[in-house]
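In response to a reviewer's request, we include the raw inputs and outputs for one of the modeled complexes. The three entities were modeled together in a single run.
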Amino acid sequence: MFLPVLLKTDLLLFLLLLIVMVAALYVRRRAHLMKSWLEIVRRPMAASSLIVLIFFVAIAFLDSLHLRLAVENTAAQRQNYYSTEVVSVFDLLATSIREQTEKTYSAPFALHLFVKETIEDNKGGSERGYPRLQYGGRHLETIADRPLDVMQRLGVAFIKAFAIGFFLLIVFLGCQARRQRTSITASWQYSFSAASIVPWKTVMVTLAVFLLLLMCTLELAPYYHILGTDKVGNDVFYQAMKSIRTALLIGTLTTLIMLPFAVFTGLTAGYLRGRIDDLIQYLYTTLSSVPGVLLIASSVLLLQVYIEGHPEAFQSDAERADLRLLFLCIILGITSWTGLCRLLRGETMKLSSVDFVQAATAFGVRPLRILLRHLLPNVMHIVLITVVLDFSGLVLAEAVLSYVGVGVDPSMHSWGNMINSARLEMSREPMVWWSLFAAFLFMFVLVLAANLFSDVVRDVFDPRRRR
Amino acid sequence: MFTYILRRLIYALPILLGVNLITFVLFFVINTPDDIARMHLGMKRVSSAAIEQWKASNGYDLPMLYDEKKEGFEALTETIFFNKSMRLFLFDFGASDEGRDISVDIGKRMWPSLAIAIPVFVLGLLVNITFALMIAFFRATYVDLIAVIGLVVLMSISSLFYIIWGQYLFGKLMHLVPISGYQEGSSAIRFVLLPVFIGIVSGIGAGSRWYRSIFLEEMGKDYVRTARAKGLNERRVLFLHVLRNALIPILTGAVVVIPLLFMGSLIMESFFGIPGLGSYTIDAINGQDFAIVRAMVFLGSLLYVLGLLLTDIAYTLVDPRIRL
Amino acid sequence: MPSEAVAATALLEVKGLSTHFSAGDEGIVRAVDDVSFSIHRGETFALLGESGCGKSMTSLSLMRLLPDNGHIVKGDIWLDGMNLMDLSEVGMRRLRGRRMAMIFQEPMTSLNPVLTVGEQIAEVVRLHRALKGGAQRACVLELLAAVGIPEPQRRYGEFPHQLSGGMKQRVMIAIALAGEPDLLIADEPTTALDVTIQAQVLDLLRRLQSETGMALLLITHDLGVVAEMADRVAVMYAGQLIEQASRKDFFAHPQHPYSSRLFAALPTVNKRSQVLTTIPGQVPPLTTPFSGCRFAERCPHVWSTCRQSVPAWHTLANDQQVRCHLLVDENAKHRQDISTATARVATASLAVDDNVSPLLDVQDLKVHFPIQKGLLQRTVGHVFAVDGVDIRLSKGRTLALVGESGCGKTTIGKAILQLLRPTSGRVLFEGDELTQLKGEELRQRRRDFQIIFQDPFSSMNPRMRVAQIIEEGIQALVPDYDAANRQQQVLALLEQVGLPAAAAQRYPHEFSGGQRQRICIARALAVSPRLLICDEPTSALDISVQAQILNLLKELQQKRGLSYLFITHNLAVVAYLADDIAVMYLGRIVEQGKVTDILHAPRHPYTQALLSAIPVIEKEAGHAVIRLEGDLPSPSNPPSGCHFHARCPQAMPRCQESYPGKTLIASGHEVRCFLYSEDKPSL
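The model returned the following structure tokens for the whole complex.
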């Protein structure tokens, strides 16, 4: 029994996914758009980064289905009571890792804590040493057993991955063969040849790597802290996974929030010109002249003052953190609409004097219709390119802002927060490196995939880059 | 030229006024001086007398925009907006909420900021142009492909990673430079070396890639074909014809940030413990000192507007097609 | 094939040249396919072809300056006994600019914008003549003077943007000459220039050639330019040469069906009452693998052999070479007599009835654009784009507005349509003052007048289907049509402009230039206008396609009684289509009258010069050559008095003082020039 919880950012994320789906349907029905997108998917680099991005989105989606579990209650009580803790579906899937908290730091795959403590031995005496972890590797007798155990589990993971992969491949080829009415071997040959529209070879290799990683994680994570634990003993791998949602939300919601405004102002300024243009120009020059970090910092500080002044407005910590995340997205949106608006204004001005817009005017088409039917579709490529380009910058910015202390709520999982808290341990000898490593690795994979993908999108959609 | 600059500066006034209005709304309307006072005095149970006293001693006891009780001009000047925001136009930054003179602090702290920002800017520009030229020279070969992928990888790495990794490698493992800190005078160079190096490296990915695309765009133009048809060798085509044209967008694009170099880098200075304006701002943010943050917002906007002006002037200097 | 004896003396000998491009998904473009020709010293060899036939790629292959995605797959290029294909890139560089030089179509973009004119020429002098210092500068100044640039001393230090288009092309020629090349390749050297400037540049090329004795490879699509310049001609079609001949033979009796039809498709005054011969369809894309003759699909004589085997070269007695199966004797029976099949007589336009008020009456129209400077947008001057123009156009007639670029003819069109609001003056449409109409009233009135633009690529929204594009006007202006009605209308219109019904569901980019122009015409007709403003509707099109559009326009005029305001710089089109002509110079009409009056007895010196500047195929006896000096002045700062006086060969002192009034020469023939105002009553 559970009670679904809909945070504001969840709502926006679902809205975003809905928009993406509607857009996909729209694209499917338009041959020229479909052609461009197929061209993107055809590039191996784009195809594999798209798969990585889809994986990240899937995790973020699972992590956005929030709920409050029912508390075990006696049969006598007819009313259901729900826990105050808001958890997500992802949390439930990862319950074992989430709840296996140690006392404090431990290195990846460690059996012992990272710091010395006084251990009582069974004879009643005590000595200083590294105590065994409560969960990590507790099924092992001594540390000498670890290599064999890990190898065995990896072996099992490989076999499982291979079996599942083979099964999926057969299913895929079978479907392909049915669709194209050929034999399985023929569809194998076709799918992996250069003639295939989708580069299945690249897709399969990427998926295979993913499957392998997934299997290894599934095998190892319940028995070890594969990326260690942090100061209060939480599993770092779990934290890094939880941070995916934060990063994706910042990267996408910011754009979602500022997009309608930027498109509206950019188009009207470019098409109507005159006083309205002057006003919008003044607005974005002023806004862009305020140093971005400072504007964000001041706004977040102010929000903090507000939150501290009104503790009664929030039912749970999650809601408070959520509001701060949303607010951060809005502020980032305010600082980033100026660039897009300027681009759109320029492009609209150029388009307004192009013959087809003049022709529409000559036909007595009304201005609003000209804006929507003639100008908007022809500047959409700029919007798209900006959106994908901004994404990786925003993900990186989150880490910096959280470091400065004006990012997401300190209680929220984010790579920035992970780095921020791990930074304090840098001087420790030997160094506690795994939190930093995990945060940077996850961030790098996401940003790299996004950058590679946006490169291809820009290549395909930017008319200037076409040869 | 002079009248043009003067006109531009006058035109900048409404923008700065707008900036002031934004900060005013942020700091005094959404959060009233009462809120700020309460925060500075500690949240719990503050007597209203204490709040009034704090406000009075920090100059927040005036009306917001208009003082009904005062006559004439004073009705406008004896207000928070005038005293706290308009004063900035005269470079009178006032005192921080803790009572320090902000102007003095800025004067002292801008030098360490510049010591890092200027080398990063100049050397970074040179390094990026060199890299981009080299990659453009090998365009449409595997060298180009690998270099571009390398640059994408470089730009996908968080700047925090460069700093932390650099401190660990050069400071902690190799003991080449101190991990952080700063000293006045000639010994400053030991402290500046690492931040400058890291500043340059972290900019290579995005910078070189951008310049490369500028170079490639120029190389597709007709005049390059003319130059080749003259029988010029590829070096001369690239270094004389293409570079001269590509430098126009590169230089004018870089000029806009020159004034902002004064502001220093928040992250870099705070990681390396450099007492510059960047760490000053960060400390103010962490200490919730609104007076300093407000002053820095104004200073930043002013410098940005100055940068725009410099960009226009730079255009007229490097591009023969543009005259004022 | 040229014989070996010829090859021995030829300067350039191209043998079996094939150049391919990879074009991504579309496959391989065979831009140049097995091309062979030779050029002798001092000769002008013209490579004639329509856009996209591979002639520019041929020239770039010769210089080995192909873009990154193209490469020469086969063939030899012999320059003076040296095979260029054996040379390394370094060796090739020594030849470029020295032995063979090149000038390009777009003088605007072909010069480096940030280097001075002098530096750009000096670079070549230094490289190829090893001159330094004062000698180098003297050499550059000499070159500048040689290409006819006034004040070379001053121009030396100027940047390209400070020069006009014609001047830039002269600088390009100076750069090409700097290395004293044996061969000059000129790729459409005058296409981007106005007629009077084109005449200057062609004269210059001819003079330089006779002075230096270099060979000239002239690449062009303009039969007139070929007729004026070439010694020998090669016709290129879809990547292949199909005919080679001396100029005399080629113009006297073109042998390939494509060549002969190209001549037939040219509009002239003599064909006014006929339907122009057209070449159906369009040039096939160069990605297609050809199995037979490339022209087969468009050829009227085509039979099965044409589609199966590629024709070999046939050499006629006069050394004229043709690639066509028809030339083989036993195939002569396939020759169709096509001349009678198309020579339907078109009826003339409606006669003018002076009693009826004209459909369109423009009185003293002025459009001035303010020049704004600085951030505060202060107005520091005006561009006098249109400066007092009177036009009258009756129902069912065609008025051509002729002038060079920048004279304000397009602005007039837009001002009449109220796409631009005129500064002053009256635009009366059936007696209604359009300049006073506003908002909804104007919107409703837009049914009556429509426009066709020059560029068929930018005049349609690439994101809309053809049906939507045509429908849009109906939707906006004829709201009582429902969807079914509109669809019916769209199909009817497509049929009228000769497009299949299936076209409705496709996007503009799927069509060729000519087809797009047809769609634009259909779109304009959708609201049943009575006045159609055609703004250079054929100047972006090839000759063969131009003829199709002109026929269509003429047919529609007869069927629907349309009036055309035809804006163009192409006098051949005017001669074929128009009833009346108005010649514009710098915002004003300098002469107007009936087409025959203007073409046969032009009065204004500018009109005379304009007419004589057009390269023509058949020179009339006593064809006076008038060459204008200098460029079109800027409309923001027109010369005092008569705007034309600075370039006028017959200028008098009073021309500098005031602008001449209108002088009536004959009925409907007016001219504004002091040459005629003494003895004629001024209006």
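As requested, we also summarize the result in words. Residues 252 and 314 of chain B are 6 Å apart (CA to CA). Chain B has a mean pLDDT of 83.
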